[in-house]
Amino acid sequence: MPMTISIYLRSLNFCLRLFLLCLIPCLSNAATPRANHVPADSFLVLSVKAEALIGKSKILESSTWAPLLEKLALSQPTLHEILLDRNSSGLNLQTPIRLYARTDGKDSSLPSFGLIAMVKDPKKTDRTLAEIAESLGLEKRKGKGTRYGKEGFPMGIGRKGRLCFLLGIAPNSKGVESVEDRLNEFHQAFLTPANPKQFPASLKSHLNQSADLALYLDGTGLAKIIEDFWPDDQWKKLLPALDDLFNRQIGFHFQSSPGTIRLTATEYSRQTTKENADVPRITLLDQLPGDSPLVARLSLQGDSFRSAAIQSIDHALKFLSNGKINKDSNLPGFDASASELLSFPSGDFVFAGGTFKSRIIPTNSNQATTVLDPSFLLGVGVSSPITFKRFMAGLNSAKSLDALLDIQNLHLSEDKSVIWLSTFDFLREVQMKKPLFPLSKSRKKLLENHFFALDLDIQKTNQALRKLDSLSYDQLKTLSWAQDFAKLTLWSSGSTELTGLIKAKDKSLHGWEVFAKHLGQEMIDSINENLYRAISTNNFEALAQAIEKGALINANDRFGHTPLHFTAYRGNARMLQYLLRKGGNPNARGRHDSTPLHSAAWGRNVAALEVLLEEGSDVDARTDEGETPGMTAALRGEKEILEILFALSADPHAKDRHGTNLIDLAGAGGHRAIVEMLRRIGVKNKNPLHIAAGLGEQEKVKKLLQSGRKINDRDSFGATPLLIAMVAGQEKMVDFLLSRKADPKITAKEGYTLMHGAAFSGKKSLVRKALSLGLEVNARYGVNGITPTDVAEDEGDALPYLRALGGRTAWELGRKPDSTDK
Fold first, then answer.
1. What is the DSSP string of 67-104?
2. pLDDT in tens, 413-462
3. Continuous H helices in 749-819
4. What whole-number distance in Å separates Cα of residue 403 and Cα of residue 406?
5. Where are the domains of the chain?
6. Which of 14, 233, 300, 266 is nearest to 129 (CA)?
């Protein structure tokens, strides 16, 4: 068994490698491929326009994807070389690449699969195939064309004419036929020309429609596999109930353009349905609340809806009663059959929702899980009120329905021709029979003109969720994905085609670029998860194992920090040295272009700083704000670090982009010794009032004010003496300046407030002071919306106090409404 698993793991790796090779773009304006290259019995076909996807996603130019591509260069140099020279593979990528799956034949449900691409230069393609075959230990097979394989290996690659292919088979647990025989049969069948008349019209129609990404599913093939491989248990008896679902051929097409991703889903098995039938007007729409992030409408033909529902219930009843009860049997407690009871719905449904309430549930691991309970309103049209009352009477014969609704905090309301099921949030509107905020004209038009329509304001839902308490890391991560998208709209005017639009928040970006950015970050975070855990627990052995398994040392996490930044901040010099020896870049750039040297200075870690300097870290590296490591050390009060940096020629006169220098920052930190050292070496003090306020020199402040300095003077950053005193934690100075009518509401550049300064000081008393002055707990600063909770000192009592006041980080609150991440 271990050998079999190993073979298939290697096979999967091989398949992925060839698929990556095929995804390398060549030319745009892809041409439509010949349909008969795909086997007619395929039940799954994935079509990819490589040029479109890679070009629109911009992964080759993406800073997020850069470390992933670097890893590819180390592990698969051939593929990386092809990425750099897109013509070297010899493949004709003007045509889409097809990945398909099928079953072996009429007597077997074992799946087999293939990957096909067209060839532009046969000699180059043969050379590429030979290199891949050599790396996998595959041997060249005899016969026409080019083919590579290996005994017992369930995949093969090859070329015949202008067709390059990968063929593979699923394992056969029964062992009736050898892998070699099955693969040879598949190869022979694949290369045998198909009869065009036998090619399904649905698959042909699907392949003729152009898109960046397309997926075709034939449910009959999936059903055959499920039926043959499902164990002979009681649940297998329920499979016939799914026949209507499986007996369909459906195609999905995805196309990206600036600001949007467009989806088209087509059911080819029902193409005879009239698409332009009149959409009935329903009064239920008049009661939908227009301020809900999500509104939807579904109208089904009454007869077809009831027929499908009754058929499903019939299967379920037979299954549960072992064949004793069916749709026509009188049900106990109802005095009616399922067929009769299910005649009450008209087939019209409306829905509103998109907001949630959170519940914190303790777990056995001394942690808590946050559960999100949706708030919603569901309306169901009723065509037979009398039948509905009989249905409800049966359900509630022992008050069981009322008890269940009470437990779930749900309310059921009945009207003449509609039933409303809602949470408490919508109960008032149901009882008033009128929404507080009616649907907008555009939303109402969308719902009125389609049998099915859905409109979701993603930004509004995102903001509503972020207001909840104690969201988990995974929940916040999902919201960080969602915040880059603005809206989802789905609609259908009939039963065979569904159209959808996902709109990006940044209209200038292709939808694939937004998606690829998050996908790349997810991959990096997954790869580096064990590495960060090892660093946080100071587990050197685990760190070494994570690197051995391919951790990305120079990749930023979703918060913009590399493992080097994190290690430098935490101060484990041995780990840092090991990371650098294993390829870590001592000048790696994190968010805001900070380097590990900045992190070492911020973390007050001299040993880590010395390791970085020995490995060539730039002593005057600047962030996007122009801050050097020396400036970080000055603000943090690290005199020893400053002396080390100056000894290595760091510039003591450096200024950031606002014009702030080291003496300004040392004063803001309240670090007298550093201020005096900087004075001795000639660093200019252009803001004596601010420096005196930061150092708590009350008499000097009085003299400067008497000499004509203004109480609300601003330095180059826009900070007042009061703000500097707050940052430095000088409580007596803060009180003095306030007594002299200093304005606490004046903010520095980009919205840095007095509350930010109080949080930075680490003192609860100053946070309380700022709160009493009317400052916001979650004030936002800069493009990324940094909050007081973000800047609060870890060791002080300000941070837990801010949390108790409802303080959140920028990541928890999400992007500012008027900003976009850079």
1. HHHHHHHHH-HHHHHHHHSTTTT-EETTSPEEEEEEEE
2. 888 889 999 999 999 989 888 999 999 999 999 999 999 999 999 999 99
3. 754-761, 764-772, 788-791, 798-804, 810-813
4. 5
5. 2-229, 284-485+503-509
6. 14
